[in-house]
Design goal:
By secondary structure, the chain is an alpha/beta fold. The protein has 3 helices and 8 strands; from the N terminus they run αββββββββαα. Bound molecules: copper (II) ion.
Amino acid sequence: MKSLSRVTLIVCAMVCSFVASATDHIVEVVTDNVNGITAFQPKFLTIKKGDTVTWVNKVDDLHNVITYPDGFPAGSQGFESPYFENAGDSWSYTFNNEGTYQYHCIPHILMGMRGVVTVSKPTPQRGFHKPSKDELVAYRNKLLEFFDSEEFGIMPDAVRRNVEP
Ligand SMILES: [Cu+2]
């Protein structure tokens, strides 16, 4: 009985230390109307596997968070938040796979509103997910909810090659 409770204690301590090691990170979603800037701050964030990142909208403005179709490690998954509208709107994502996650805001893609989360170690150039045509079309369609086809110039070349006839 005595040894059993000691085992229980040790297991509990291991679980507790594991839980305690997962860290929450905040990325501020910034609209600076005075300087005409929209940005994720920090733009580059390095975290550990199992950590959670919460994006927080700082002022009333339309933003979101979405990975580029080829912007996450092969074997992992991209992510996409709902749209933020009001100050204080937020969205969290827990990263359970190592590697590099490159994301942007759809409404402000033309303003270069993008960011990178690196989980433990960066993904080598050839280690990124290779999106299927269906994935690229789905991504294009998300952008087209904001930008009409006349603005196709915003498409990365790889996307344009795959989705245009
Ligand atoms: Cu934005």
